[in-house]
Design the sequence.
């Protein structure tokens, strides 16, 4: 398929060498995993949708001054990004109790939290991404205090912006996961937003019905994954009204033309 040098393959994405130093190409796969890859599957068309949704959100965040790794979308499944040194943390932002928090704390799913909660996990599949405190982060040197300040600050800005973006289209932003990276300018490192923002790493509930429009449909065997992701894309204005399968049709059309 591609003769570019592969740098890294993750569960949902592949990173290839970019056209210029300091750039990478991020390829969105249809593979889906859950529960630390104990559950595996394919959601046909997911990569196309996540590429488009993530492009949209990263572009809007860039417009309000949040620094991100996103440069431009290249095609249906790929985007050009800045190469970063990934901070080995998953930054989880929660507005409403669900998933891991509900389980750990015995709080009913759907309970509005009195304030936004930020949690950190250490990115390590073999350890199952254990939750860590800022003390652990400082102790093991994963990020310094100034970087943690920037990360928390950006996480709150992203949350405020995305909560409004989704509320305007009838979707409650329950929680989401962010990843950050460092870019170096000589001896000086700057933290920027990396990875992706899509229904793969957000909980998105329809405000009227509480229907889940995110990866929990896969995690919990609810079915209708691609329809849910398409609904998010449609409400964001990324799919023409009334043409639910357009993204996928477009991709197969391009493939037939050998592009
Ligand atoms: P929880 O800790 O409740 O399982 O997840 C909280 C939020 O972070 C959810 O929106 C979930 O999608 C996201 N999240 C947490 N860990 C991961 C992960 O390893 N991969 C992805 N894609 N999302 C995650």
Sequence:
């Amino acid at each position: 398929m591609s003769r570019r040098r592969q740098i890294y393959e993750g569960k949902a994405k592949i990173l290839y060498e970019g056209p210029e130093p300091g750039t990478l190409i991020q390829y969105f796969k249809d593979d889906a995993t859950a529960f630390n890859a104990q559950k595996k599957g394919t959601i046909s068309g997911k990569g196309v949708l996540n590429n488009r949704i993530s492009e949209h959100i990263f572009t809007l965040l860039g417009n309000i001054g949040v620094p991100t790794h996103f440069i431009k979308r290249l095609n249906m499944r790929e985007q050009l990004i800045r190469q970063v040194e990934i901070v080995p943390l998953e930054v989880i932002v929660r507005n409403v109790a669900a998933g891991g928090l509900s389980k750990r704390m015995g709080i009913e799913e759907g309970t509005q939290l009195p304030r936004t909660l930020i949690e950190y996990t250490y990115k390590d599949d073999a350890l199952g991404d254990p939750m860590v405190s800022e003390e652990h982060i400082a102790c093991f040197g994963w990020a310094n205090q100034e970087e943690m300040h920037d990360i928390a600050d950006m996480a709150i800005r992203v949350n405020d912006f995305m909560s409004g973006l989704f509320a305007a289209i009838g979707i409650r932003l329950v929680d989401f996961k962010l990843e950050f990276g460092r870019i170096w300018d000589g001896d000086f490192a700057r933290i920027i937003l990396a990875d992706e923002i899509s229904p793969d790493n957000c909980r998105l509930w329809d405000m009227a019905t509480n229907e889940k429009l995110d990866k929990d449909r896969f995690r919990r065997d609810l079915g209708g994954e691609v329809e849910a992701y398409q609904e998010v894309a449609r409400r964001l204005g990324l799919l023409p009204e009334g043409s639910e399968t357009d993204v996928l049709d477009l991709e197969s059309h391009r493939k037939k033309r050998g592009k």
